[in-house]
């Protein structure tokens, strides 16, 4: 081990108690952006995030928006140095699942296993990037590192675009790196270069003013639950997942042969994928087809159907109303605006009484598949974790990415730290010191790589 390697290892080990204390404080704030009851907690998280930046020696601003604020800060050492913006989010998903084995907002540190909502999505990776940046700045690396910590990502980033218009508080960088994605497995780092978009919607049908006795009215009464299920059947094939909305696939750009080859080189294993997410069976067991479906193909998903009786036993009523919650993941070059129009037009043809309400939309993203920034990410991950990453696409959506791409037109790279078993959006979420410490090393190395690129 060289002196440089020993120095960064010493820094990381010495930083561990502080990292764990900061992550614990952050996890115990239930910053649930989609629940208005937690608005005070979201603002409290913004204050704590700004405090973390200042404690690290950076400057920080809380940038107000029409919704929740964005925390902006960092080190501008020299205007002549390259500037990289690190994006993460500090809001979290709700945690109402009955499978939680502990209180989701009571942080637990089990010898380097950090349990609690937000530990891996995305507070743990955000702090790892901060510690990596502080080390690079302390070592005199000729680079400016800025941070953007959003507090509405889990709610679709409705106010992020207005925030980055504040050029004084959020200057345009030369590149962006995002740490909010998941590896393929603990043994295979994976860095995406593309994200799927998202369109959410509610289909609402009211056929009566109240529930009615099925023995008295059944057969004559319309059943809104049945009618909405009929619409689902018309929209998607339940066995294959193929979307049947006319025109849905018209704008889809399929992955290239080179991209599929890269997917196959990633080491993706169907068995591990099933194990990580608790699946008994899949629609297909072919690895290439599974990867294409989860990273590069659009979807139609049903998330919930409400109306009628949900208590124990069977209550024999015909519901007076029903609501279906759906979403569609989108890929380049689909747009959520056009897909929503296709959905609404098709549903109106199937059942004019059904109202289609849009519930947020995010555009898909496709970034660099090769080039100097991609090579810098490879070297940084190699330095942090001892293995080069696979370059894949990500099946999820991050609304802020497309916003930054449109506003700044700079390279946007990903350097996620989370593992499938960490439980993104799931009960018993956790992060771990192995990923955090490797992330600190990888980010500090990445900033050095960017500085070298600038010097030529």
UniProtKB/TrEMBL annotation:
Protein's UniProt name: Peptidase
Pfam annotation, one family: M20_dimer
Domain (Peptidase M20 dimerisation): residue spans on this chain: 193-353
Gene3D superfamilies membership: 3.30.70.360, Zn peptidases (3.40.630.10)
InterPro entries: Cyt/Met_Dipeptidase (IPR051458), Peptidase_M20 (IPR002933), Peptidase_M20_dimer (IPR011650)
Keywords associated with the record: Hydrolase, Metal-binding, Protease
UniProt entry tagged with the keyword Protease: yes
Keyword Transferase tagged: no
């Amino acid at each position: 081990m060289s002196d440089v390697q020993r120095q960064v290892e010493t820094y990381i080990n010495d930083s561990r108690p502080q990292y764990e204390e900061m992550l614990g404080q952050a996890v115990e704030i239930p910053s649930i952006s989609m629940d208005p009851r937690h608005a005070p907690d979201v603002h409290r998280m913004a204050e704590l995030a700004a405090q973390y930046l200042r404690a690290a020696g950076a400057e920080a601003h809380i940038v107000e928006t029409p919704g929740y604020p964005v925390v902006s800060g960092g080190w501008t050492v020299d205007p002549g140095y390259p500037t990289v913006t690190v994006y993460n989010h500090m809001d979290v998903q709700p945690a109402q699942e009955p499978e939680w084995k502990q209180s989701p907002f009571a942080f637990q540190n089990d010898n380097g296993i950090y349990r609690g909502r937000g530990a891996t999505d995305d507070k743990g990776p955000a702090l790892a990037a901060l510690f990596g940046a502080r080390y690079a700045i302390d070592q005199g690396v000729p680079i400016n590192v800025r941070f953007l910590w959003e507090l509405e990502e889990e709610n679709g980033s409705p106010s992020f675009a207005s925030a980055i218009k504040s050029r004084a508080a959020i200057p345009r960088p030369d590149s962006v790196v995002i740490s909010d994605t998941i590896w393929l497995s603990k043994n295979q780092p994976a860095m995406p270069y593309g994200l799927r978009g998202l369109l959410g919607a509610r289909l609402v049908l009211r056929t009566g003013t109240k529930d009615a006795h099925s023995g008295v009215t059944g057969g004559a009464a319309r059943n809104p639950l049945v009618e909405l299920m009929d619409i689902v059947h018309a929209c998607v094939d339940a066995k294959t997942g193929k979307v049947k909305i006319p025109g849905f696939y018209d704008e889809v750009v399929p992955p290239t042969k080179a991209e599929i080859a890269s997917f196959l080189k990633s080491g993706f294993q169907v068995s591990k994928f099933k194990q990580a997410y608790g699946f008994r069976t899949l629609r297909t067991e072919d690895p290439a087809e599974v990867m294409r479906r989860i990273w590069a193909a659009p979807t139609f998903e049903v998330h919930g159907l409400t109306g009628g009786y949900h208590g124990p036993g069977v209550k024999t009523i015909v519901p007076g109303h029903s609501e279906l919650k759906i979403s569609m993941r989108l890929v380049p070059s689909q747009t959520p605006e056009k897909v929503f129009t296709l959905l609404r037009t098709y549903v109106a043809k199937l059942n004019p009484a059904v109202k289609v309400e849009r519930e947020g939309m995010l555009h898909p993203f496709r970034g660099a598949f090769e080039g100097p920034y991609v090579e810098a990410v490879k070297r940084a991950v190699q330095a942090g974790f001892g293995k080069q990453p696979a370059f894949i696409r990500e099946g999820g959506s991050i609304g802020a990415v497309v916003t930054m791409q449109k506003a700044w037109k700079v390279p946007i790279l990903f350097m996620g730290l989370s593992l499938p078993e960490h439980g993104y959006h799931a009960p018993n979420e956790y992060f771990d010191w192995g990923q955090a410490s490797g992330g600190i090393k990888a980010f500090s190395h990445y900033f050095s790589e960017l500085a070298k690129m600038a010097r030529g």
